[in-house]
Each structure stands twice: as structure tokens, then as C-alpha cells.
Design goal:
Elements: H1 2-14, H2 36-44, H3 51-65, E1 69-70, H4 82-105, H5 113-134, H6 145-148, H7 160-177, H8 198-216, H9 221-232, E2 243-245, H10 256-263, E3 268-269, H11 272-278, H12 293-297, H13 325-330, H14 346-349, E4 356-359, H15 361-374, H16 382-405, H17 422-429, H18 441-455, H19 460-469, H20 481-489, H21 498-503, H22 505-512
Antiparallel strand pairs: 1-3, 2-4
Helix pairs in contact: 1-2, 2-4, 3-10, 3-19, 4-5, 5-7, 5-8, 7-8, 8-9, 8-15, 15-16, 15-18, 16-18
Amino acid sequence: MKKLIYLTLFSTTFFSCTKNFEKINTPPKDPVTASTEELFNGIISSLPVTAGEYSVMNSWIYPITQQGVVAGSNSYNFDNARGGLWTTYYQAMANYRLIQSRIEAAATPASMNNLYAMLKTLMAYKTFKNTNYFGNMPYSKAGYAPINGAAGYNVPYDKQEDIYPAILTDLKWAVDNLSTAAGQYSPGNYDTFLKGDIAKWTKFANSLRLYVAITMYDKNSSLAGPQIAEALGKPLLTDGEDIGLWPTAIPGLEFQWRQWSFTQDCNLRMGSTMWNLLSDNNNTDGSGIFDIRAKIFFETNGANSWVAIPQNQATVTETGTPYNIANRDIDWNNKGNTNYSAFNFYFVKDVKYIPELMLTAAQVHFLKAEAYNRGLGVTANQTTAKAAYDAGVTASLTMWKKIAFNTPSWAVNKPAQEALTTAELNQVLTNSKVAYNTADAAGSLLKIYAQTWIDQYRQPFDAWTLLKRTGGKTPMATTDAGNYTGKYGKLYKFRYPDEEQSFNNANWKAETGGSDVSDKKIWIQP
């Protein structure tokens, strides 16, 4: 039953898109006949990255964050992600509102606290991600169309500065109310996400609370500070507890859109900004590589050499097809005459083992490191910050090595063993580009951001949020900076989908003034 429900709901999302992702759809039918368990699993099924989001990640978000470079054209329009993200979010919100109404109408609502806490946590994650993409958006009055009818589609926009506190309120409630006490309702096998593990649900909710509070701290420290302090005193995700969608844990789940996004018009390559944090020099034989993640994230060019594209370079001459599955499945070295190092082919080839990550243990360690480095909600303590930072680097190296080792198809540059060795760890932690200096809090803060940015290699949407909320303190090349600014530097948000003008016009106009642009800063930005 678990496999059937998940696949049915996932397939509905998977096959409802077109390549250009800009089709204007009529409002979805109200799913009032679905069971509570089906609605709950429907929200879980909305978590995978959408097709349009993948295409925009590869064409735009990677070069915006400088975690990668696009060699040549950007292939897909910057607007391609907005429709799928918007529709998927508000369909999930409709499910949430329906379950919320059923909980409120239950004979003993308190017996549904665990379910309600899980729902609040899932929607907090989705809302956090969506508002960081769009900024202001319909929220507090959204999702009620299945209950209130047609009027529920005309929803005013909430300001991001109001959405963030609401997310924190929901996450605090979830942390305070998740319980292993007898008598709590459980969705059973319909929890295909964390399998009813209340301890892990609690850690996810609390870690997400820490993430949200630190993200908003510079805009509302009086609210965020106490949340950070409280979150640090409660259970957080720790080593090996990396939250995401793991195909090996969800029967039938495959990330076909990830594969499609690389095989269709993808010009993504390794850039010098990332390369310079993984290697001590530009030796093409890779002898300067000190971080094992270099050979996990990327691969050599057509001449079997390590060559990064200089970040911000105005024109790039590139050939070859490193993401051609038909060629490379037969011969891994058949990349064509590529001049530059591509993203590792195994992230293209594999759809059944490599996860879609949402919040890693390394990220949580780095959040703790930032809190103690800067004194966010707690007294600044560089010794404590260093310990958290070192734990974050260790967790990131461990996780990525484990992913590569446990992917059956991985053959070239496959780690010899799963466990991280002392030598591999020390080679990174003692490198001057990485080592935390307790006497230089400002410089070490930049290293916290850099290591978070590296760990978010497959979460460029989070790296984009980090770039925005820190005011550009993530790794950025300074050479030819004008080229970057002209093409990517003023892309702060996604525009709202066209359907908002069709179905929610008055509220859309009230929000945009009739002119929706991508260079409008969102609230979390300085």
C-alpha cells in the first residue's frame, strides 16, 4: 500500500508538466474525497524537486551562487521554475488545510498532535523554501479553496517578515508537541518520509527552526535570538541524520527529472570558485586536490584533465557531451572533446540511490558554528564555534563519501571504503583555506559560509538563500565581477507565475503594482 500510494501521487506530479513549464492551468479540483492518510502522503509526495526547478538550477542558480558555471547559453528561461513550484506548493497547502479542518473537528484533537506536528513541519519546510524563492506570497489565507470554494482562490499576499515568524511558531509547536505517548494517532505506512520516527521528526523540526531563525536573525533579532537559544538546547540532527528523499528508503522513488535536467541542453561545468576551495593549485593532473569532495562532485574533461572554467568569464568555448547517457553508459570516458571538467556523471546516471537532500547534519553543525561565532541568541564563544565547525566539515565529508561508496553504479573514482579516514579529514581541516582560527572570528565566519556552500552542492536553492541573507559573503570570484553582476548579480527572486494574473489579479496587482520583476530584493536581504 505504501508503494502504491506514493507512486500514484508522485506520478501525478511527474507527468503533468511540459518541457517549457509555462502552461497556464485552471485551478485544481478539490480533493475532498481523499482520506487523511492519502492527503498526508500527498504532501510528502510534493517534496521532490520539480522539473522546471531542476532546469533553472542547472541554467541559473548554480552560476548565481557560483557553485558552477554555465558554458555558453543558459538553455532554459529563468522563469521556468515558477509555475511548477507555485502549483506544487499550493496543492500541498490545500491538503494541509483539509487535514487541519479534520483535526479540529475530531472528537479528541489532542490525539492527533503528532500528525499535526508532522504536517506543520513539512509545510514549514516548503514555505521556507518557497518564500525564499518568491519573497512575499499568499500564505495565512491560502489553501482554503477545498473548504471555502471559489473565493478561496482570491488570496492576499503575506509579507515575508510575517511569514518567517509564523513558520517559527509552527516549528516550535511541533517540537513541543511531538510525543511517544500512547494514544497518539499515526499515519502508519503513509509516512513514507521519516517512517513514524518521532525522535527524528522532532530533530528535523527543531533543526529547521534553528535554520529559519538564523536566516532571519539580522532582520528581527529580538524574535530570532530566543528561538535560536531554545533550539540549541533541544535535540538537533546529528551525524548520519541527513534529511532528504532517499530512494533506497522509499520503494519505487526515482529522480528521473534530475537525469532529464542534465541530459537536455545542460551546459553546466565546474567553475574556479568551487575548484579553488577544493584544490591548492590548478595542476591538471589533480595533484593539488586536498578535499575528497572534488572527485565526488566533479570529473575530468575529455582529455582526462582537471580544468575549471574561470568564474565570470564573458565567453567560454566548450564542446562535447559529458551528460550523454547512451554514450557514457557504454564507455565512461566517452565525453566528447570537453575542454572543462563537468559535474560528475553519476549524479546524472543514478536515479535510484543518490538522494535529494533537504537539511544535512553538516548544515546543522555549521548553523551552530555561526550562532557561537557571531553570538546569535547565545554568548559568542570561538572555541565552541570551532568545535561545531570541525564537526560540520567532518559530517559533510563523511556523508558525501558514503553516498559515493554506496551507489552501486559508481566505478570511476569510487572511494575505496565507506568510512572517512583520519588522513582524509586532517588533509581538509588543516588546510589554510579551511582551518578555523579562533583568533579571527570574522575570517572564520567566512569559512563557515564557504563550507556550508560546499556542502550544499546539490542544494543550490539553499546556497542562493545563504548568498542573499549574508549580503554576498558566500564564496565569490572578484575577477571580471562586472560580467557576473550584469547577468546574475541582480537576480534575487522568481517572478510570480502567470496564473496569478489570471486567477488572483487584484491581489497580484496589490503586491506588484502591476510590474513583477526579479531584481526586487526579498525581506531577508540587507
